[in-house]
Write a structure and sequence with these properties.
Layout (H helix, E strand, L loop, with lengths): L3 H35 L11 H10 L3 H10 L10 H9 L8 E9 L5 E9 L1 E9 L5 E4 L1
Antiparallel strand pairs: 1-2, 2-3, 3-4
Helix pairs in contact: 2-3, 3-4
């Protein structure tokens, strides 16, 4: 015991000296990836699926749901650069809100895009396919 105790601090230092470098690299990598994800404005809003934003907008046409839908549109689909103008135009739309909307399912493609199948009922049911890009934004609705 007399020989072990004096050598213990040096042994611990050697063991920790080797393990702190990989830990620091892993921690730095996690910090970098978190900052990169938070700083990427091209990603869709993380708190919702953009297909769900489309579904909510067909049921309840409020300024909040229309704004959420605008933020989910791919930049190529944003015909109006101003979000407020988009909300005003949606408020003047002549279509009435849907009485029932169902999300039937979704399918991921090899390229990373997702197709979400929905039915919208406003008297008679109509099927729609909402196409989401790899970033989760709406690129097409058929």
């Amino acid at each position: 015991m007399r020989k072990v105790l004096p050598r213990l601090p040096a042994a611990l230092w050697r063991a920790l000296r080797r393990s702190w470098r990989p830990s620091a690299l892993i921690l730095a990598g996690l910090a970098f990836s978190t900052v990169a994800l938070l700083a990427n404005p091209s990603r869709a809003p993380a708190d919702q699926d953009c297909a769900d934003a489309y579904i909510r907008t067909t049921q309840v046409r409020s300024s909040a749901t229309v704004r959420a839908l605008f933020r989910c549109l791919d930049p190529a689909l944003q015909p109006i650069s101003d979000e407020d103008t988009f909300v005003q135009l949606a408020a003047t739309a002549v279509t009435s809100p849907a009485t029932e909307v169902r999300r039937l399912g979704s399918q991921s493609t090899a390229s990373g895009t997702v197709v979400v199948y929905t039915t919208v009922t406003n008297g008679q049911p109509v099927a729609y396919a909402v196409y989401l890009s790899r970033t989760g934004r709406i690129v097409n609705v058929e």
